[in-house]
Design a protein that fits this description.
With 233 residues, the protein is of the alpha/beta class. It has eight helices and twelve strands. The chain binds calcium ion.
Length: 233
């Protein structure tokens, strides 16, 4: 696994490098934004730690440019809390962020979590059954592009299938719209936040039609959506 560290503070970059190498990752350091973008566009890497303020090209531009051709996981390093919504939004499309100042340990933990998430969502979706005494039996079957709740089936479109597939695989995990979009469309097309919201709404309605007693897809204000089976009270 190769982690690219794009950070113009040499001391900080070296500190991150030491911690990541201790965990067995290979690392590359870039201290100039323009050079980093050039290198990241042409050399494969498994994850990018990307500082926001850089000489040359800034981190936000690098991520936006990178997203046109690549879905490599990107974690932004930022001191600007007010930028976070934009960083995770559709336009920039970062996977996660860490606020400065941070501990290197926190960075390592976040790198591991993002890599785990990236590898699991790339894997094929398997049919799965969820049921417990409190919740209705819920069967999501990608092969037949359907969801069955208490023996009632609703058919899903290809986009809804992938949308549910991504979220269903990690119950409780919140996905932002950029993450959902990248996994919903195989041709990497760019759609608006509203298009994603409308697919989520339709998917939710389909499931509510078969089972009004339970909620499956939840909005998380300001971030995105998650899948969780919760009995309506
Ligand atoms: Ca900087």
């Amino acid at each position: 696994m190769i982690i690219s560290i794009v950070e113009d503070e040499q001391k900080l970059a070296t500190l991150l490098q030491d911690y990541l190498q201790n965990e067995g990752y290979e690392t590359r350091i870039h201290t100039d934004g323009t050079e980093a973008l050039e290198s990241l566009t042409h050399t494969p890497t498994d994850l990018v730690l990307l500082d926001l303020m850089l000489p040359g090209t800034d981190g936000m531009t690098i991520c936006t440019e990178l997203r046109k051709t690549s879905d490599v996981p990107v974690i932004m390093l930022t001191a600007k809390a007010q930028e976070i919504d934009r960083l995770l939004g559709l336009e920039v499309g970062a996977d996660d962020y860490i606020c400065k100042p941070f501990s290197p340990r926190e960075v390592v933990a976040r790198v591991k979590a993002v890599l785990r998430r990236a590898s699991s969502s790339a894997a094929d979706v398997e049919p799965s059954v969820t049921s417990s005494p409190e919740t209705p039996s819920f069967v999501f079957d990608p092969d037949t592009a359907s969801v069955t709740i208490e023996n009632e089936t609703c058919a899903l479109t290809a986009v809804e299938l992938r949308l549910l597939g991504v979220m269903h695989e990690r119950p409780g995990q919140i996905f932002n719209r950029a993450q959902l979009m990248r996994r919903m469309y195989e041709d990497n097309r760019i759609v608006s936040d509203r298009t994603i919201d409308s697919h989520v709404k339709k998917l939710r309605q389909k499931m509510e039609t078969v089972d009004q007693s339970t909620s499956y897809i939840h909005s998380v204000y300001g971030i995105g959506y998650k899948f969780e089976i919760i009995k309506n009270s």
